[in-house]
Amino acid sequence: MNIGTILGLLVGIGCILASVVVEGGALIALVNLPGALIVFGGTIGATLVNFPLALIQALPKMVIRTITGGPHHQVEELVSQLVSLADKARRQGLLSLEEEEQNITDPFLKKGIMLVVDGVDPVEIRHILETDTQLMAERHAHGYGVLEAMGGYAPTMGVLGAVLGLINVLSHLEESSHLGKGIATAFVATMYGVGVANLVFLPLAGKLKAHSQEEVLLRKIMTEGILAIQAGDNPHIIREKLEAYLSPSLRGRAEPTPARAVAEGA
User: Fold this and answer.
1) Residue 194: what pLDDT?
2) What's the Rg (C-alpha) of the chain?
3) Of the residues 37, 146, 159, 202, which has the maximum number of CB atoms within 10 A of its CB?
4) In this predicted structure, which of 17-26, 84-93, 113-122, 253-262 has the lowest mean pLDDT?
């Protein structure tokens, strides 16, 4: 569960509502059905026009994934796992990695290791894994692209709601009872549009984009690790190579391989 996403939404929306109460306003004044129909209905309609229906249908799943969490790998754990596999391959041969299949939970890493076990050419393995990663990144880009587009449509629909509200006011100037409703729709629709764009759609798109970049980095580390294992590189060299992808604060935090631990303890 990604607590940051939930906490951010609660803090953002909660502070806005609290400010209304502190100012002596009534929360019920923020409820405006015409404004909601214009902003939310208009945003959904524009999104349906702009994107394929299949992509829209996948949106709830993407949003839930943003809330429940991104990549489950810890980078240092991944490096340790790859170094451990390299150590086993060096001592027992590449075919011994087949025994590790049930211990590898990540489908991408399992796929790469099985290609190594099957003796596939390194150039072909790199091509397969990099193509897989590129297609994943493109799927993710389509996903957060929908949310970014919704973040652009919503404020525009808010402005449209404001214009419609003011037109309603101008067409009933002689009826004072209509003036308040029209002005309320104008301002509340603007608030809905700007608020939902900047508190929900754009932040969720940003979080999805960050998760996608993190997954791409993890797959780059896996790809280089898999190819280094196939090449029979020294596990210590593989660790140094893979830690180059990490920030300085994360380097050296991975658990040493058994072989290295023995060497260091000797």
Assistant:
1) 94
2) 27
3) 146
4) 253-262
Q: Report if pTM > 0.85.
A: no
Q: How buried is residue 262: exposed, middle or buried, by Cβ count under 10 Å (0-12/13-18/19+)?
A: exposed
Beta carbons within 8 Å of 193's beta carbon, 6+ residues apart: 39, 43, 154, 155, 156, 157, 158, 159, 161
Query: Tokens 């652009």 map to which residue?
Result: 152
The DSSP result for the chain, as a single string, is --HHHHHHHHHHHHHHHHHHHHTT--GGGG--HHHHIIIIIHHHHHHHHHS-HHHHHTHHHHHHHHHH-S----HHHHHHHHHHHHHHHHHH-GGGGGGGGGG---HHHHHHHHHHHTT--HHHHHHHHHHHHHHHHHHHHHHHHHHHHHHHHHHHHHHHHHHHHHHHHHHTTT-HHHHHHHHHHHHHHHHHHHHHIIIIIHHHHHHHHHHHHHHHHHHHHHHHHHHHHHHT--HHHHHHHHHTTS-TTTTT-SPPPHHHHHHHH-
Which pLDDT does position 260 carry in this prediction? 43
117: closest CA among 83, 94, 84, 141? 94
If phi > 0 it is left, if psi is from -120 to 50 it is alpha, else beta; for residue 93 that is left
